[in-house]
Design brief:
- The protein is an alpha/beta fold.
- It has one domain (6-37, 56-261, 343-489): Alpha/Beta hydrolase fold, catalytic domain (Rossmann fold), CATH 3.40.50.
- It is built from 17 helices and 16 strands.
- The strands form 2 sheets. Strands 2, 3, 4, 5, 6, 9, 10, 11, 12, 13, 14, 15 and 16 form a 13-stranded mixed beta sheet that branches.
- A hairpin with a 7-residue loop joins strand 3 and strand 4.
- The longest helix has 21 residues, at 303-323.
- Residues 1-60, 63-75 and 80-101 have low confidence and may be disordered.
Length: 493
């Protein structure tokens, strides 16, 4: 096998857009950030689950001051040579009017194949983790290698799309604000911010308005993705701005319907030999209380959602206490390091002065890989059921793909399969009786697929929580087949 060429930083060329865009109107804004003492007493599972905390130097990017001296009322886009031989070469492409009061950061990569390929937005979970985790370790154009050099990712999703990686919610990654009232607490605030972001993006890039548009993400993006899809669909119906050509959305190892997914933990752990039958039966006694607490969260909100999270996390905590040092993102592995993976090179790379200069990032701003403040601010959103808006989208023909690596414990395939099958829509019965067929890549079984109409569920073999990292080729083939309308046509040979 011919190895992928290693690219020194002086040879890599990227397109980046740094977006300065509008703050939300008061009708869209969520409540001001408060420091709730409940959040300071988190269970081990609550601290671990879906939170790649890479020990950021700053808990969140809230800068001191009122923003004086920063560009205001404009979207600033920069296309640049990434660490060119003579230093960063940055060219302003344009300035577009906007009402600004916080700043959102993102990378944008044009397709390696055609500008007519779909536009795709990728959202990493956390909540509060920057999408650079996926960009540099999963499905972006490059991977970080030794000595902070970069290598081409042959299986980057820019092989088939024009792709955005966004640091959100506000305060995540390189996104920042001068006012902590911009920190979001629920999917209403998050989805409205992202909708405004997309409006400004397409204003800056009208050449992509006609392209098909897809929303993708993993982990806590099981909340973000369907919320944004519903928000885009609403905006299109009400002619609120530029019509976004939404065709579908995909959720990878996501948290979408917590009440159902938490109930699946004991069964998954038993099936995979993590706990014994006696353990399973004992832990399962907590399920009715979790289910009731989740229902109360849906109807009452607020503090009841804190209670639901604590109650349901007793199930996960109990499994972890038995499992010992297992990697809860990939049960084939031991957990090494604070949260089982070493992504420390990401912070080293993005906080290098020459990198920040090339990206147009101010000297005082630090890259925050995972924000504890954003994480804590979203805790009352955690147990909300985001499946409820998906049936409407399915009925309107918007494609939905839910995929899950089979070796993930935290957002396991079993819990995801259960909520997908339980979802009430006109195709529920037909989907439930659809045959399970092989997902084949290069003649090898790479997963098992169920599909009917616009809905697909794919269990990916030999993969954990981060499917594009564990099975990059299968992930790319899945993505290409799905956006190309061919995934549901697979049949057993």
């Amino acid at each position: 096998m011919v190895p992928s060429p290693t690219l020194t930083l002086s040879k890599v060329f990227l397109s980046l857009v740094l977006l300065f865009f509008a703050s939300l109107s008061s009708s869209y804004a969520t409540s001001r950030l408060t420091h709730d003492p409940v959040n300071s007493h988190q269970s081990p599972a609550q601290k671990l689950i879906r939170s790649f905390n890479l020990s950021p130097k700053d808990p969140v990017n809230i800068l001191k001051g009122d923003g004086e001296g920063f560009v205001s009322g404009k979207i600033v886009e920069k296309k640049f040579s990434f660490f060119g031989d003579s230093g960063p070469s940055i060219e302003d492409l344009g300035h577009h009017a906007a009402q600004i009061h916080y700043w959102m950061f993102y990378f944008f990569f044009e397709s390696r194949k055609s500008k007519d390929d779909p536009v795709v937005i990728w959202l990493t979970g956390g909540p509060g983790c920057g999408s650079e985790l996926a960009l540099f370790y999963e499905n972006g154009p490059f991977h970080i290698t030794n000595n902070l050099s970069l290598s081409w990712n042959d299986y980057g999703w820019d092989q088939a799309s024009n792709i955005l990686f966004v640091d959100q919610p506000t305060g995540t990654g390189f996104s920042y604000t001068f006012d902590d009232s911009d920190i979001r607490h629920d999917e209403t605030g998050v989805s409205n911010d992202l909708y405004n972001f997309l409006q400004e993006f397409f204003k800056a890039h009208p050449e992509f308005i006609k392209n098909d548009f897809y929303i993708t993400g993993e982990s806590y993006a099981g909340h973000y993705v369907p919320a944004l899809a519903s928000r885009v669909n609403q905006g299109n119906k009400e002619n609120q701005g530029i019509h976004i050509n939404l065709k579908g959305f995909a959720i990878g190892n996501g948290l979408t319907n917590p009440a159902i997914q938490y109930q699946a933990y004991p069964d998954f752990a038993l099936d995979n030999g993590i706990i014994t039958k006696a353990d399973h039966d004992d832990i399962s006694k907590s399920i009715p209380e979790c289910e009731q607490a989740a229902k109360t969260c849906e109807t009452q909100g607020g503090k009841s959602c804190d209670n639901a999270l604590n109650t349901c996390n007793n199930i996960f905590d109990s499994i972890l206490s038995i499992a010992g040092g297992i990697n809860y993102y990939d049960i084939r592995k031991k957990c090494v390091g604070e949260l089982c993976y070493d992504f420390s090179d990401l912070e080293k790379l993005l906080n290098l002065p020459k990198v920040k200069s090339a990206l147009g990032v101010g000297g005082d701003l630090k890259f925050v890989s995972c924000s504890s403040t954003v994480y804590n601010a979203m805790l009352q959103d955690w147990m909300k059921n985001l499946e409820v808006g998906i049936p409407t989208l399915l009925e309107e023909g918007i494609k939905v793909l839910v995929y899950a690596g089979e070796k993930d414990l935290i957002c396991n395939w079993l819990g995801n399969s259960r909520w997908v099958h339980a979802m009430q829509w006109s195709g529920q019965k037909a989907f439930g009786t659809s045959p399970t067929v092989k997902f084949v890549v290069d003649g090898v079984d790479a997963g098992s697929l169920n599909s009917y109409g616009p809905l697909s569920f794919l269990k990916v073999y030999e993969a954990g929580h981060l499917v594009p990292m564990d099975q990059p080729k299968a992930a790319l083939e899945m993505f290409k087949s799905w956006i190309g309308g061919k995934l549901n046509t697979q049949r057993d040979n």
